[in-house]
Amino acid sequence: EVQLVESGGGLVQPGGSLRLSCAASGFTFSNYEMNWVRQAPGKGPEWVSYISSSGSTTYYADSVKGRFTSSRDNAKNSLYLQVDSLRAEDTAVYYCARVSRLGSQHFDYWGQGTLVTVSS
Amino acid sequence: DIQMTQSPSTLSASVGDRVTITCRASQSISSWLAWYQQKPGKAPKVLIYKASSLESGVPSRFSGSGSGTEFTLTISSLQPDDFATYYCQQYNSLWTFGQGTKVEIK
User: Fold this and answer.
1) How distant is the alpha carbon of residue B39 from its chain centre?
2) Of B38, B95, B98, the CB nearest to A47
């Protein structure tokens, strides 16, 4: 069974940092591209970041570019998102999501999410 | 950036109704569109990908159509489990979600 489990969220002051993690199981993690998606309270999902299966290629939404860094450790079946210079508008549930390998780049599995709250 | 616009924002319907949700892209995305269902406190779940392909395990009452800039999600006969919020997502150029359509009980 495919499982994605996020962790690392919490309450942080503006300007602070966190490292979010996503532990993958039930599939060959190194074969799959991965993404981070966030959802602010009462809002729709917002794509945040993409990372290729090898980790050599990353893309970011303009809203987080230069502040967030995505990485992965295929030996540990883990995905990471380093979030720096946090702002109030970064408050959201952060999900990791797997890219399908059906010749389509939609997200076929999602984790349960980890909440990041940015407040003083 | 490609913008996605869904309509309506809220839809009131009864069990057994046929329901249609529309999603428009700000530029052509070919058929690179997915539909997701989300319930409160849960992650989105994919229903349809490549505009009209049904994800494995999803009931056949869900269907998708369209290409280019205009797309629809249809639920042929609304069931109690279908009251939720639905999002479209383009993946022609990176990824963008629509703002959502909440399907409420009438």
Assistant:
1) 13
2) B95
pLDDT in tens, chain B (106 residues): 999 999 999 999 999 999 999 999 999 999 999 999 999 999 999 999 999 999 999 999 999 999 999 999 999 999 999 999 999 999 999 999 999 999 998 8
**Contact (Cβ atoms closer than 8 angstroms) between residue A109 and residue A2:** yes
Query: In sequence order, what are the residues at sequence separation of 6 or more whose Cβ sits closer than 8 angstroms to the Cβ of residue B61?
Result: B75, B76, B77, B79
User: What gap in Å lies between CA A12 and CA A91, rounded to an integer?
Assistant: 10
Cβ distance of A50 and B1 shorter than 8 Å = no
Q: Of B31, B29, B4, B1, nearest to B100 (Cα)?
A: B4
* The amino acid at A20: L
A63 touches chain B (CB under 8 A): no
Q: Which residues contact B2 (CB under 8 A, 6 or more apart)?
A: B25, B26, B27, B29, B90, B92, B93, B94, B96
CA distance B35 to B103: 14
Which residue is closest to B90 within chain A, CA to CA?
A106
Residue A44's identity, in one-letter code, is: G
